[in-house]
Design brief:
284 residues, alpha/beta, eight-stranded mixed β-sheet, 9 helices, globular
Length: 284
Amino acid sequence: MNPKEYDVGDVDVAWCPGCGNFGILRIVKQALAELEIDPRRLVVVSGIGQAAKAPHYLKTNFFNGLHGRAVPAATAIKAVNPGLVVIVESGDGDMYGEGGNHFIHAIRRNPDITCLVHDNMVYGLTKGQASPTSQVGFKTPLQVAGVTEQPFNPMAVAVAMDASFVARAFVGDVSGTKEIIKKAITHKGFSLVDIFQPCVTFNKVNSYQWFKEHTYNLAPSHDPHDRLSAFQKAIENEKLPLGIFYVNENKRVFEDTLDAYQQDKTPLHQRTSNRSAVLSKLFS
């Protein structure tokens, strides 16, 4: 499949010139094309924020919901039609701040969805407030003396909760990020890919150069099935590792636990008989 098939044409894109979201969008398009995913069976879900605009620039199905609420919507979409490929595009504020509770419980449920988090360590849509991943000392128009709280560590939380796929990437590494995203999409279970990307307008500290200088690639010898090793890497903070931290292929996915699919794997919306009873069982 040609990546140009995902081109939505002459669209007025709402991101600032130089924004890291452009790079993520381009990499996601390439990954989808190389995986030959039919746009008709793909759903991209988002909440609110600059990252949440990404689905608007893909020629596929999308659901744009409330701030921090992309994950439960994506879980429901996958539940009613498990044959779909479901991807969440979210920002660090949308996923870890407003959506933090949903993030944690989605890991517990383990739906077969992929969460791509555009992590620029700032709230870009609302003009530069500190986000959950902002570094200590980061000054904003609201945090004028600098951030005092330790940043939220999504890698450590995800590994500690035994998420089935945990990875981190940097948009400046196009090929590496693309391969991580492809593996996340094809993994069966909840996949988290935290993607470092600069906000060139509201975060002058965590620039492209900063991410290059403060990250490194996990060694080929790193075993992503070793949970303890993955957690040790997740809590490193002098230099931040990039790569696939942890994989657990033995967790049952949420859709396979639903009574509605124990006998009949037909998507709920395609069933013509006993629909009310099926829905009642699913959501009771």
